[in-house]
Specification:
The chain has one domain. The chain has 121 residues and is mainly β. The strands form two sheets. Strands 1, 3, 4, 6, 7, 9, 11, 13 and 15 form a nine-stranded parallel beta sheet that branches. It is globular and about 30 Å long. It starts with 16 loop residues before the first strand and ends in a 5-residue tail after the last strand.
């Protein structure tokens, strides 16, 4: 008889979090299965199946494709959020947005076009 409280491999899966701290500059693309937080600078593209958080000191110049994105810093480039894009009050975005849902705080700045909904393509 099998134990009822036995954990499976998927139950014990820990989520990966990648951190690019303030003062760090990266030139190149980032591809990740887990979550990413950027407080530094990135010149390149980001692709993640997880959540992307761009802190107030974070800047990205390139395309972003993630499930959920929270922006407090600066982005110059195309953004595709499969689920939710959240723009905090300190966010600045120059580029086109494609998102399932969009949350915009007063004070954020956006220049570009936006398509949203269940099938924004």
């Amino acid at each position: 008889m099998a134990k009822m409280n036995q954990k499976t491999t998927s139950d014990t899966h820990t989520q990966n979090i990648n951190l690019i701290s303030s003062g760090t500059k990266i030139v190149g693309d980032i591809i990740s299965e887990g979550d990413i937080r950027i407080d530094g600078q990135l010149k390149g593209n980001i692709s993640s199946k997880g959540r992307l958080v761009i802190g107030e000191s974070g800047t990205i110049e390139g395309e972003i494709e993630c499930a959920n994105i929270e922006i407090s810093g600066t982005v110059k480039g195309r953004i595709h959020a499969a689920d939710l894009l959240s723009m905090k009050a300190s966010a600045t975005i120059v580029g086109d947005i494609v998102a399932g849902k969009l949350s915009v705080e007063p004070g954020s700045v956006f220049t570009g076009s936006c398509k949203m909904g269940e099938n924004p393509a």
